[in-house]
Amino acid sequence: MMKKRMLVFPALLLAVLAATSVTAAAQQVVTKDKWGGTLRIAVADSDLPMADIQQNGGWMPGQSLVGHQIYNGLTCWNFVGEEGRIPAGAPEPMPCHAESLEWGGEDNPLVWTAKIRPGQTFHDGTPIDADAVIFSFARMGIAGGEYDPVDSFEYYHATVSLLSLIYGGGEIAGYRKIDDMTVEITTRRVTSWLPYNLTFLKIGSPTAIKKWGNDDFQFHPVGGGPFKVTEIKPRVSMTMERFEDYWGKVPNVDKVILVPMAEASTRATALAAGEVDWVEVPASDAISSLEAQGFVLHTGPYPHILPYQIRQADGPYADIRLRKAINYAIDRETLCRDVMQNTCTPATAGVPTTHKWFGNPKETYNYDPEKSRQLMEEAGWTMADDGVRRKDGEPLRFKVLISTTGSGQMEPVKINEFIQRNLADVGIEMEIDAIDINQFYSRTHGRKLEKAGKFTSGNFVFHGENEDFHAVQNSWGSVEPKAIEDMFCGEDPPLCHGNMGGYDNWLFDELIALAQRSFDPERRDRLIRMAHDMVIEDSAYIFIVNDLNPKLMHPRVKGYYGEDSWFNSLQYLWIEE
Description:
alpha+beta, D-Maltodextrin-Binding Protein, domain 2, 2 domains, seven-stranded mixed β-sheet
């Protein structure tokens, strides 16, 4: 009989068994020369992310620079390595507001028990306890608690609920308070992934939410994370100060100021003028000149891809030969080297080749325009006199919806214009529709959950105003196992909220289900690799590039170690005056 077990992955298990020593190490006294200063960050968006317990604006900057700084979940990402360096490979969850998370084992496989870490407070001084967890889950629209029906709960927030479903809240079937410091969580299915999901389900102060109300709490957010918000000026700035009573590593830096700047050229100019210290997604054509002025470029591989999520439930690209034809038509090497100035690497899979979930795919989509043409000819699309392929008199079009900037999208207009020329070379007429990132999310992420149950997988995006599109370009990161399932599984939302294109392969679903039920990390990763190989073989995405997480910083910014992760720990940074 399998015993109950604490946090199920090695990093988590060690963190729980040595919770006291981890906390003590995180709270060690920082030497004076590593303390202080104000860090100003230019984020690649036209406005600040919503600062509620869930954030819009995607993982960058919403989750990374806002959510994970103001709040913690019951678990959070492990940033407690040497000098704050993230452990090699994909980061793992660790206990945060919970000091332990125990799985019920084979006798009770759907039940988990979270013990709240004692002595914690929110930024407003109120206690972090089981009641706060229950309250926050209800605000996130997670059903099965004492405030059901949650959509009638006074402090339920529709947008927060939508985002919580995207980030794993849909895995929870119920939850209840056992005592003041213990919460029991029941999952919908046997899953070893709950510790990952809980990193995204952040806990806010019920007192502050009640004080400011549903609409205004986002402008006066109160969490229990390493930074507390002191001022928000919409479309101008967000100011955070270190939280001296944080349970873990108290930040070195005095303040962090986030400044929204949608245009890459504007961010580069602001850095050169000394208006900011850190630039997200720097303009690729400005990098060399800024480096020559002494600014420091940080890059490094991390689990992130910019693809096309292509419509394959119906339309011309339901034919796998056409999907493969586009994959072979893109000159990724030239795109990364000459257009993006080596801030990306070619992507021929859903994860980088160095990732633990990259297996042994049968096909590699190198640049091969001749093979692209051959595949289209086999599919009956022949070249017409105007340079556009046709079949039964219909031209071969590829209409894509993209954002102009935002969460991990790099420089999407520049990238898509390059690909447009590649596709024209093989006879595909590509049309680009570029819109604001928040409008983009409304027409994609928002649409798919709004229409859950009314449309089959994949068709809940490509209807209405999106009816004539063939693909959407949305970056995503494989920071946790559920990300692979979300993007490619064939179930309806919320379990497969990211499968916009309608990819459907029963064997992929079976492999992922086995991986989810496995509490052996090696077996889990082996099964995910097998499933991922199928995604590549089926050309489920049009793979474009893996970006290298480029950030340009003033040389006075010290202690940055975030190259291997989507998320940033700002706790170890300081400003050298």
